[in-house]
User: What shape does this take?
Amino acid sequence: MSRIASVLLPMPLPEAFDYAEPEGMGLAVGDQVAAPLGPRLLRGVVTAIRDGTGGNRPLKPIAHRIDDPPLPASTVAFVEWAARYAADQPGWPLAMALRGLRAPKPKPERVLVPTGAEPKRMTPAREKVLAAAALEALPAPRLAEAAGVGTGVVKGLVDEGCLAIEERLPDRTPPVLDLSPRQGALNPGQAAAAKALNASFDAGGFSATLLDGVTGSGKTEVYLEAAAHALAADPDAQVLILLPEIALTQAVIARVAERFGSPPGEWHSAVPPPRRRTLWEDVAEGRARIVVGARSALFLPFRKLALIVVDEEHDGSYKQEEGFIYQGRDLAVARAHLEGCVVVLASATPSLETLWNAEQGRYNWLRLAARHGAAVLPEVSLIDLRETPPERDHWLSPPLVQAMAETFERGEQTLLFLNRRGYAPVVLCRACGERLTAPDTDSWLVEHRYTGRLVCHLTGFSMPKPAACPHCGAKDSLVSIGPGVERVEEEAKRLFPEARTAIFSSDTMFSSQSARDLVEAMERGEIDILVATQAAAKGHNFPNLTLVGVVDADLGLRGGDLRAGERTFQLLAQASGRAGRAERPGRALLQTYAPEHPVMQALSQSDRDGFVDAEMELRRLERLPPFGRLAAVILSGPDAAALDAFARQMASVAPNTEGVEIFGPADAPLGLIRGRRRKRFLVRADRSVDLSAYMAAWRARVRPPGQIRASIDIDPYSFL
Ligand code: ADP
Assistant: This one.
């Protein structure tokens, strides 16, 4: 009987294509094959097999099977599910699932093994080589080295047929993990949480748990214990730990290595492609049992997932905004559901969506109320900038400077938190009033003094700071407006010339190594004042850090989108939580112009629950997530008139469904990026509506003409 294989290609195509299976190939779902598309042969994955021939339209045959591990069926199901959820082409998530295969296969090593043939003439040097080769199969140069002879001796033995060349792959035996339980080391609250998690494993099947504990309460300890339990229960089980930022992975990798006696697999964009390839294969073949990674690790071909941990689950970095648009935390829950495994969402400041699921009883809810050991939560106070403003063109107010002086005198560390990279967020011409923007983009250029450049954080465009205004030509007229971390560091240096300062931001930590160096310098007490963006606001434990100063607590509230209050609360609570992580008590000072704002009040009273209740009530009234669903359509194109016309056409064909409201089209707040104009629709739907299906149906009714692009963002986090 002939069979038809549906093959999905990792590119933006709407569906899998059918091919004829050549006789005797014996394909199965998940197999990787080379399939012809036009004149080319492309890698694809079999998503379905059925009997048949394709009727009167003869199908092209699959060219051959690719010798790479197949995707497990559950990974294929996840790829298809993710595409449906995102209302996007399934080739996108497949491309993510195959990303590890971009580097070539690791090459086999050519090693030498004794054939047993005696050399015609035996010498002491030859004897040494044969003895070393009998011990271990090595490549020629290393064999010569091991025997302490020249490579000529080795070559002679090969020529005489006493040593044979064999190809061997590098040893990939999985490491032995220390999975002994450490329940005894946990404090009573942690032990109770670990026990509850272990019980959900033992019950089997899917379950989701919110691990809700204040910063420093030992959430990491608890989920590592749960991981040990899961790995010990089944020799094939695999564990995935997701983190929002690369800067955090190093700290967690070190802890995992310490706990299990062997480092985990590491997966994120900074890992070089050959290492990604090896990890991809190790995951697919079950050798990698623990993976620590960024959101894209969710698409790895796990054979037997037992546990997914989403650490700092509230973090906005789980949302991928470009290419395939998805929310990593939500997809983690979906994947756990498809795999029938346990997912743990950990945070000190959980997202409203997750708290709501926990309140509804859909997720288990484990709370860790206190910090481990003697550490206590920092005292949070507000500094009213209207009453005690900094001097002109300064950013640190007298009460904060006073606290920094006290901290410095005691030999303790200060963290100044400002979520703004560079020196100044805006450069303005005093002569003509123009603010400098990137070419063809509605985004201000940010001044970076370390590099002397003006940088667009949106597009990556940069240029040297000009001597004259590019608009009116006035000389020396450009002034820097507002502070970034570099400017705050400059001020801190001026105030405390003997203090050692450093900056922690994505500009100063371009590699995992530079992040590690900075964290270690901080831990060793070699830095007195650390000025940091959100890259340092979470995850790290600095025992001697006792003061956190938030330079501009109101910053995140200004955008005013749906999550502005929630995000500000989370970020500032996390930043404040960096203080006083060991025996020394800490304090956090928040500079604000709006001390009466509910977010500031909740922070100063450490009243997370009160804040969450009030915020939930607002969302309920406005029927916003988690009480309703949102999606956005972003249209872009080089020509404003054509874009307007397409937006109107799209509006006119929107399906009419009860419980769905459409707002727009409107010019996007970022109306121009790289010469492309942008327009947006916002869609709000009742929870009962399948919004993904609605958006897919809407998109299917139009075809963007020419250079216009339409992308759909389910559950948008950015409204720009
Ligand atoms: P969280 O993940 O909740 O922020 P961590 O797991 O990072 O908390 O724990 C905070 C600090 O307390 C870490 O330095 C950790 O090693 C320490 N710690 C937590 N629980 C224990 C424990 N049971 N025994 C020893 N140290 C602990």
Remarks:
- The mean pLDDT is 92.
- The pocket of adenosine-5'-diphosphate is lined by residues 185-187, 190, 213, 215-221, 372, 541 (CB under 6 Å).
